[in-house]
Design brief:
The complex is a heterodimer of chains A (261) and B (857). Chain A has 261 residues and is of the alpha/beta class. Helices cover 36% and strands 23% of the residues of chain A. In chain A, strand 1 and strand 2 form a beta hairpin. Classes of the chains: A alpha/beta (261), B alpha+beta (857). The interface between A and B is medium-sized, with 29 and 25 residues. Chain B: It is found in: Cell membrane.
Chain lengths: 261, 857
């Protein structure tokens, strides 16, 4: 396992080698007295070729951070880059193109179009873009996630774990610069979840893929190279080469802090 | 109680999804209510007009029943002698008796040689000006007409023709042509029924309209000492009542009401028929809406069941929602309907028939009919979705999937649909074997009903095959977006089938009518080519008979080898003690050169010989008559005479061919010249090689008579084509309502699908589908659904039309012509409808926030 070089978490003026970067990002809902800050001056840099987990309790802003990094949501202030492209202020059309060409998504549930087969779902982003999938790469991906026998199945003929693996394959298939996972194992039992996480790990190790995953599960987070902890819209800590026990300890620490403060 | 509450909450929560269903109900109910209010208002308007204009006792021409101012076929109105006024005034209880001279057998022509009167159905009426006119007219402007050179016109005619005081008007009638100067203009105080009215002084009116003296009617007012009934009886006793009727004000009004009522009833039934078609189409929309609502709410309903709601409660809660929809939609529809009626009245105003909103007649039956109809339709439509909702088990609350598709039910449905469709097709085919119109009509009706129901039931089963085929042709060029659209259209065959069925109904009617229309045109054209030998056909443009002057002008035109008139003479015929009414075409001897009449028996020339007639084969069959038989004939206005059957005509498709013929000479033998009816058409053959010269001569001879139209064969065909085309356009216009409701159905299905697929759309957008691509996907889906509906509609319409043509064939119209142009328009139109229907749903889908979409439960 490679040891990832850790950037300073401020991210400001960080090297352009980062896969994605947030600089002083604030996301506010509402206005005036009722304003709620989902993200408060968050700066973070996502390293290429690494598996990054974003953790935090419910309402900590971890999903919002991911959505902002992925260009799904707009920010109130601050800047976001994907690769060398600043996406804050990018037009809807260009954002769509960026998502299509440079980003892969894995959601918690409902990842697949029910009318398309597994194979069609996997190649959908490339079909939409009008590009031809690289068949060799596609075979590699399909073999990696172990789906070769099920390509002609419709989503409702697949188990939950298989569906998530199809989603992983789809995310990998177009070789995006970065893959975002929003609780990708949240709906799976522990065995199926472990399978999916292993594939994600493997795609980082073997294929050099960059992955950012939001989770609240310490076991899932332990698969990452690095964990960024969020609480109340701010980055409160981070951990390199985590294990489930270390993560659990750290989480308990937050809880205790939360109670005393 | 709780059920009511849940239904109400659900209805309000989903009111956006109910909008289009509500609109469909409202539109159809509006059309029903609008029709009822409009016809009732027309009726009120005319009732008032007659009641206001009539005196206590009215003396009217005619023997019985002929209430409207119908022009006699001779064009000459029978006049009572002038002494009748004095006789009536002498009756005890009579205060005034006003003699009226009135005729509709005139044509008024302005100085620019244009007809002054309406060119449509309403007549031009000549009347003597008396004070009774002030009951319906304002005080005249200018001077009253005095002497033979003066005339007064009504204000509406003055406006439409641009004529005023000082202008010259030529009046053509059965008694020749006269010229008059306009001295005054008089406005209608009440509703103008659409006629053009010209006034003379009494003596001039008698000269111009009657060619003599006397009166066509008398307005009698009493001094109030006796009732109208008593006055009527006294007047009737005092005068010679042959050829006239003496009526009280009430009787006169009632008679006119009855005559008009029958006419309005026909209009009303026709309009209601189209409204019901729209209502039927609306059912599909409502079924789709409720089916989708129930499907979307499966988990919710499951939870409801899990916490103890019974099937009945669930079922009823859905029906209750439908009831709310029905009530809201129908009440709205009623209000819209009244608005529609007011709008229609305004439209009639543009055509010269001014209706006042003061007369707006809304009986309580109107809202009741409309609302009961709207609610019934909504409940019927919601019945099956409600039953499905009741069948949802508590387990559904725990499962993720929606309602599982019931494959077995689908197969049963497809089988029933296929069986019905095949049975219907068989019935339609049987029309080819029928030998009588009634039998063929029966097969056709049954065939239409069976194929309609069958196709509606069968449509979902056809979705797979036809949509895939359409996709191969149309969607594949759009690549993956096309494929997504195809899959979406295929996803729920019941929904796609239902949506397309709604469109199918309207388009099937359009197509079948187009088949009938084009077949009629083709048959008529072929028949004209085959049987008409005349070079020219001369008719009036306003469906009035040809005045003697005009007929004379045609006869005197140069370069004509032969001219034949056609006059319609009705007769009382007695054969073997059996009496029947028969109308004959009275023609000149040259007529066989003008039209080749197909004979079933005997020769046409023999039938036109003096003392002979030709009758139709149908009549010959029923009365058991053969060539050589003698019959007793009394032509209208003539004496009884005995004639021989010289020939029996075969049924033919010539639009001008009549079954029974007699020569003018034979008619003249028993009917005095003054009693002869006017010609309704003339035909002429030009001298050899002189067609152009003859045309020129005819045109110049008829130039001062703008009401006359000369047509050669090509123009004649064109006219028939135009007439049929106009009729078809009118029906298409009425079918537009049903098609609009069907379009709402497509919009509804797409809009609800977009809501249903919120998460999918969010997902696709997240992984890179652009707004444009998303909108295109929805548009393509809409186009495919619409084209699917068009395909079913055209196929069914062709079958219906072919069946209907078989009935025409029995009437002699044997050519089956396919309306390729209309079919092309239907398909292109359907594609456009799809694009139009997708407009709003696609826009809304494009505007969806990706994050909301992805996180929607």
């Amino acid at each position: 396992m490679t040891t990832p070089a850790v950037d300073e978490t401020t991210g400001a003026g960080g090297p352009s080698g980062a896969a994605a970067r947030a600089d002083g990002v604030t996301k506010a809902y509402g206005a005036g007295d009722t304003q709620v800050l989902a993200l408060d001056q968050v700066s973070v840099s996502i390293e290429r070729g690494a598996f990054t987990a974003i953790m935090g309790p419910s309402g900590s802003g971890k999903s919002t951070l991911m959505h902002c990094l992925a260009g799904l949501d707009s920010v109130t202030s601050g800047k976001v880059w994907v690769g060398d492209t600043e996406i804050t202020g990018l037009k809807e059309k260009n954002l769509t193109k960026l998502r299509r060409d440079s980003i892969g998504f894995i959601f918690q549930a409902f990842n697949l179009l029910p009318t398309l087969t597994a194979a069609e779902n996997i190649t959908l982003p490339m079909d939409i873009a009008g590009t031809k999938p690289d068949q060799e790469w596609l075979d590699t991906v399909v073999n990696t996630v172990g789906l070769s026998g099920r390509l002609s199945h419709r989503p409702n003929q697949l188990s939950g774990g298989q569906q998530q693996r199809v989603a992983v394959a789809r995310a990998l298939a177009s070789r995006p610069a970065i893959i975002f996972g929003d609780e990708p194992t949240g709906n799976l039992d522990s065995r199926a979840g472990a399978e999916v996480l292993q594939f994600l790990r493997k795609s980082v190790d073997d294929l050099g893929q960059t992955i950012v995953m939001v989770t609240h599960d310490p076991v899932a987070a332990a698969y990452a190279d690095r964990i960024v902890f969020l609480a109340d819209g701010r980055i409160v800590d981070e951990m390199i080469d985590p294990t489930a026990d270390k993560v659990l300890d750290r989480m308990r620490g937050f809880d205790a802090q939360g109670r005393t403060s | 109680m709780s059920v009511v509450k849940t239904s109400l909450r659900n209805f309000l929560a989903h009111k956006g999804r109910m909008i289009l269903s509500g609109a469909a109900v409202a539109l159809s109910v509006a059309f029903v209510c609008g029709t009822l209010v409009f016809t009732a208002t027309m009726q009120t308007t005319f009732d008032k007009l007659f009641a206001e204009s009539a005196s206590d006792v009215m003396i009217q021409p005619g023997e019985d029943g002929s209430a409207m101012d119908e022009s006699p076929s001779t064009g000459r109105f029978d006049a009572m002698p002038p002494e009748v006024i004095g006789e009536i005034e002498a009756v005890d209880g009579v205060e005034t008796a006003v003699g009226i001279v009135q005729s509709t057998s005139i044509v008024a022509v302005g100085p620019d040689n244009e007809s002054v009167g309406p060119t449509g159905g309403a007549p031009t009426m000549g009347v003597n000006w008396t004070h009774v006119e002030l009951r319906t007219m304002e005080e005249p402007e200018g001077a009253l007409p005095e002497g033979p050179d003066e005339i007064m016109i009504d204000g509406d005619t003055a406006d439409s023709s641009g004529l005023g005081i000082g202008d010259t008007i030529r009046i053509m009638g059965v008694n020749g042509t006269t010229e008059h100067t306009v001295t005054g203009v008089v406005e209608f105080a009440t509703t103008n029924p659409g006629a053009a009215v010209v006034y003379f002084d009494t003596e001039t009116a008698q000269q111009v309209l009657l060619g003599g003296e006397g009166f066509t009617g008398v307005y009698v007012d009493g001094d109030g000492s006796v009732s109208d009934e008593v006055l009527r009886d006294r007047v009737a006793d005092a005068i010679d009542t042959s050829g006239v009727r003496v009526l009280t004000n009430a009787e006169y009004t009632q008679e006119n009401q009855d005559a008009l009522g029958a006419f309005f009833n026909v209009i009303q039934y026709v309009l209601l028929g189209f409204a019901l078609i729209a209502l039927l189409v609306g059912i599909f929309l409502i079924v789709n809406t409720f089916t989708m609502l129930v499907a979307q709410r499966t988990r919710e309903i499951g939870l409801f069941r899990a916490i103890g709601a019974s099937r009945r409660q669930v079922n009823r809660s859905v029906l209750l929602e439908a009831l709310i929809l029905g009530v809201v939609g129908s009440v709205l529809g009623f209000v819209l309907g009244v608005g529609l009626a007011v709008g229609l009245m305004a439209v009639m105003g543009a055509f010269g028939l001014n209706l006042s909103t003061d007369d707006l007649t809304i009986s309580t039956a109107v809202p009741i009919t409309g609302i009961v109809l709207g609610i019934t339709v909504t409940l019927v439509a919601a019945y099956f979705p409600a039953r499905r909702a009741g069948k949802i088990t508590p387990m559904a609350a725990l499962q993720d999937a929606g309602l599982p598709g019931d494959k077995r039910a689908g197969r049963i449905r497809a089988t029933i649909g296929a069986v019905l469709t095949v049975a219907g097709a068989l019935m339609l085919f049987l029309t080819t074997t029928a030998e009588r119109t009634v039998a063929a009509g029966g097969y056709l009706g049954l065939g239409i009903l069976l194929t309609l129901v069958g196709m509606v039931v069968f449509a979902p089963a056809l979705v797979g095959g036809i949509v895939k085929a359409l996709a191969v042709v149309l969607l594949r060029i759009f690549g993956p977006i096309g494929r997504l659209a195809e899959r979406n259209a295929l996803r729920n065959p019941n929904r796609t089938g239902g949506t397309a069925s709604a469109l199918m109904i309207g388009l099937a009617l359009v197509t079948s009518l187009a088949v009938v229309g084009s077949s009629m045109i083709a048959s008529a054209t072929e028949e004209i080519d085959r049987s008409i030998g005349a070079d020219f056909i001369v008719q009036t443009s306003n469906f009035q008979p040809v005045l003697p002057d005009a007929a004379e002008a045609v006869r005197n035109a140069d370069h004509l080898a032969a001219v034949s008139e056609m006059r319609g003479v009705s007769a009382e015929v007695t054969a073997d003690g059996d009496s029947f009414e028969q109308s004959f075409s009275a023609v000149d001897d040259s007529f066989p050169d003008m039209i080749r009449v197909e004979m079933a028996e005997g020769s046409f020339a023999d039938a036109l010989a003096p003392g002979a007639v030709a009758i139709g084969s149908a009549r010959a069959d029923t009365e058991n008559l053969a060539v050589g038989d003698e019959i007793t004939v009394t032509f209208e206005g003539g004496e009884e005479t005995t004639l021989t059957i010289g020939g029996i005509t075969a049924p033919g498709s010539n639009p001008e061919a009549m079954p029974a013929y007699v020569s003018m000479e034979t008619v003249r033998d028993s009917v005095p010249e003054s009693e002869l009816p006017l010609a309704w058409m003339l035909m002429a053959i030009a001298d050899e090689g002189q067609v152009d010269a003859a045309r020129e001569s005819l045109d110049s001879a008829l130039e001062p008579m703008p009401q006359m139209e000369v047509r050669d064969q090509a123009e004649y065909k064109e006219m028939i084509e135009q007439q049929i085309g106009q009729l078809l356009n009118m029906v298409y216009g009425l079918l537009a309502l049903a098609i609009i409701v069907a379009i709402l159905g497509v919009v509804n299905t797409l809009a609800l699908s977009v809501v249903e697929r919120t998460r999918e759309i969010g997902l696709m957008r997240a992984i890179g589908l652009s707004r444009r691509q998303l909108r295109r996907m929805i548009r393509l889906e809409a186009v495919v659904i619409a084209l699917f509906g068009a395909l079913l509609g055209v196929a069914m319409g062709l079958a219906w039309g072919a069946g209907a043509q078989q009935i025409l064939a029995l009437e002699g119209m044997e050519v089956l012509a396919l309306p390729w142009f209309t079919i092309a328009v239907v398909f292109v139109g359907a594609a456009l409808v799809g694009l139009l229907a997708a407009l709003v749903p696609a826009f809304r889908a494009g505007r969806m926030n990706i994050l909301d979409a992805v996180s929607t439960e």
